[in-house]
TrEMBL record:
Residue ranges annotated for the Major facilitator superfamily (MFS) profile domain, each copy included: 26-476
Organism of origin: Parasponia andersonii (Sponia andersonii)
Family: Belongs to the major facilitator superfamily. Sugar transporter (TC 2.A.1.1) family.
Pfam families the record matches: Sugar_tr
Membrane topology recorded in Swiss-Prot or TrEMBL: Multi-pass membrane protein
Signal peptide start-end: none
Name this polypeptide is given: Sugar/inositol transporter
Keyword DNA damage on entry: no
Gene Ontology cellular-component annotations: membrane
Top-rank lineage group of the source organism: Eukaryota
Amino acid sequence: MAAGSFAVDGPVIGLNSKITASVVITCIVAASSGLIFGYDIGISGGVTTMVPFLKKFFPSILRKAAEAKTNIYCMYDSQALTAFTSSLYIAGLAASLVASRLTAVLGRRNTMVLGGCTFLAGAAINGGAANIAMLILGRILLGFGVGFTNQATPVYLSEVAPPKWRGAFNTGFQFFIGIGVVAANCINYGTASHSWGWRLSLGLAMAPAAIMTAGALMISDTPSSLVERGKLAQAKQSLLKARGKDADVEAELAELVKCSEVAKAANREPFLTIFERRYRPHLVMAIGIPFFQQVTGINIIAFYAPVLFQSVGFGNDSALIAAIILGLVNLGSILVSTFVVDRYGRRFLFILGGIQMFVCQVAVAGVLAATTGVSGTKHITKGYAILVLVLMCIYAAGFGWSWGPLSWLIPSEIFPMKIRTTGQSISVAVNFGTTFVLSQTFLTMLCHFKYGTFLFYAGWIASMTVFIALFLPETKGIPLDSMIAVWERHWYWGRFVKEQVRSRRGNSH
């Protein structure tokens, strides 16, 4: 959100940057929207290792697992199973593109409420599923739910948080995703031994949906969104609530009104505006960062963690415990990010986390190559299986304080108001699209590439770390309406935005 009127190339000083109780509570409630996405990521992998679930919907996997000659990497290679997991992502992709228009027309908060209700319906259908069609219908509704919330929530958090602490508040979304993953893994562990356990695991997704929907109903929309929709009195009240009753919010409100008027005067379709040359750096980041986040391999490891650990030698219960440990490590590291992201900056965390993840993926590939053999038919010993888990935990920690939270933060803070929801939509759609392709191909890739799968991800991690070092400017502490300055000063992107800065210096876009 804007924070007063700022000279574009002057020193950036955040007006009204104190943290109020209202801002903290509002941001925690909004960030809890991450629960539903996290719960779904965690629950899917655990349910797909439950024998009663496989027996009812995917009996061919059990037949394959019973064959003594099964390659450990190929046990779960089933297109029907991957369709169950990944149908959510196609629905999420479609929903996130629609959500751009919805968040502009209905507001950020109402889009979050809509997402929660849709997810609730999907969870109910999945819990009562009698056949694969019901399972996939439920997954599609879940996808619409997370598509809406993943689009609206990061924008909400960036617009409400004081500029100085925007990074810390925005990491709350990833923190709640992490809580959702851990809660789902614990529930899977508790229900795995029961014949109806999978129903309980899938149906309990209604709980986080109900929590976040009720929470969203109790908070007000962002001042930016209210101004955009012409509700100036409500916008002023929302600002006073966020900045404190005694704060002078007139300058900040005037800046938001000016931004909104500039956007309306342009009167162009945001999906066309975003492709203009001057927004090239923003667009490249909105596509590149979520794409790279997924090709770190993290979501794949999160959904398939129990399957993966079972494949490398843990029993079913041990595999679920290993997945819980992985989730807890990730959660702890997100907290680290919350405390350091506004002190050391985004680039520092991206580069440090990238190096850490690269080393771990190469090490995992090395351990698996040495212990299971090139064909993957040798059985891995317990000691080496634990070593794989330790390496995965160090990898998850690297992700948790870098690419995890920052991939939601950067796209939500770099765009001018008139294309902010559009930029976030593109970012979420790329995230879902990439996840869909990876989740469709991961089990087959694991079957054919074997340990090379981890080298595949390591290669991407090396590329993305170089990309960040060269092309992402530092955005910490900079008010949203002054963000143009960082692009103007950048060694490469400056040539794209200078024309805009010359013609509209001092204005916000």
